[in-house]
Amino acid sequence: MKLALTTVTCLTALAASAAAQDLGPNIRRITDGIYVQSAREVNSTVGIVLTSEGVVLIDTGQTLVDTRQVQDAIRKLTPLPVRYVINTEVHPDHTSGNFVFSPPAVVINHAGAGEAMRKADNPNRFATASPEIQAAAQGYRLVPPHVEYRERMTLRVGERTFELLHLKNAHSEADTAVWLPQERVLFAASVAIPNSLNNIRPFVTLPDMLAAIRMLRALNPEVVVPGHGSFGTTRIFDDTERYFTLLIERVGALVREGKSVEQIRKELRMPEYSGWAYQERMPTNIDAAYRAVTQASR
Ligand SMILES: [Zn+2]
Predict the structure, then answer these.
(1) How many A from CA of 155 to the centre of ligand 1?
(2) What's the maximum distance between 2 C-alpha atoms anywhere in the chain?
């Protein structure tokens, strides 16, 4: 009896590890029925959430090759279709794979997403891409959201609840965090990216980014899946908040010395963060801190 039980346990463990490996090298399990794909450290993440009524995807992959890998993994996990794709932002490294799942999937993001995606769309996007990407792009068309919500939306699929939360002026023209309150898993979009500088666009503000980070941390998630990079804990928020606080402090000191934004771009150093990826984005970070400092004192 004991031997039989051991055998069953071993077989179950084998089956589980085989199933995990079969999903592909870039796909990791977070908890029951929730998986994340991220092909390299700075790449965008894809959330795969299984429910009794089908799959909910959160973003579609850094490249269309990643999207196809997600598609293959889903086929191995469940015979059920992808019912919804939630985009956490408008940029192609999160959204260009929408067409792979839709139809039948319904695509959702905050108001403003469709307009921004239509404006930025380049039908020749893949003309000079590698043969591998071109093959993955077979059948490509822009699929902007079918549903655009405002501020907050609750989606119930099978046994799961998804709270969609708008992050205002946090990264792109429409940013959505996805909170699973029962599982305490948070897909946090691209407001805080581990060990990486963000590309801060002119309409994004640091006070709005910080407000979004604090709102997300207050949910008290157990697992935080950022829009790019490895999943972890709320430490991702702490690190980014500390970085912005120090940046604002240093830019503020230089502004009080009468320095122009051009001078600050030349002089300011953040050696504590020199190991973070995308150092070439520093000027956009300094500009955002300069706007925060000068607009606050106006
Ligand atoms: Zn982006």
Answers:
(1) 24
(2) 81
38-77 in b/e form (b: 16+ CB < 10 A) is bbeebbbbbbbbbbeebbbbbbbbbbbbbbbbbbebbeeb
Q: Encoding tokens for residue 209?
A: 């980014």
E-strand stretches of 126-210: 147-149, 152-157, 160-166, 176-180, 185-187
Distance 58 CA to ligand 1 centre (A): 14
The Å distance, Cα 81 to ligand 1 centre, comes to 27
74 within a domain of the structure (yes/no): yes
Distance 44 CA to ligand 1 centre (A): 9
- Record the pTM: 0.91
For residue 171, the CA-to-ligand 1 centroid distance in Å is 7
> Does residue 148 contact residue 112 with C-beta atoms inside 8 Å?
yes
Instruction: Convert the pLDDT of each residue in 183-236 to its tens digit.
Output: 999 999 999 999 999 999 999 999 999 999 999 999 999 999 999 999 999 999
pLDDT-based confidence at 17, cuts 50/70/90?
Answer: very low
How many structural domains compose the chain? Answer: 1
Higher pLDDT pick, 12 / 259: 259
Q: Between 256 and 15, whose confidence is greater?
A: 256
Residues 94-128 pLDDT 10s: 999 999 999 999 999 999 999 999 999 987 888 89
Q: How far is CA 93 from the centre of its chain?
A: 9
Q: Domain of 243?
A: 23-296
Mean pLDDT of 15-21: 48
Q: Is residue 181 part of a domain?
A: yes
Q: How far is the CA of 232 from the centre of ligand 1 (A)?
A: 19
CA of 285 to the centre of ligand 1 (A): 15
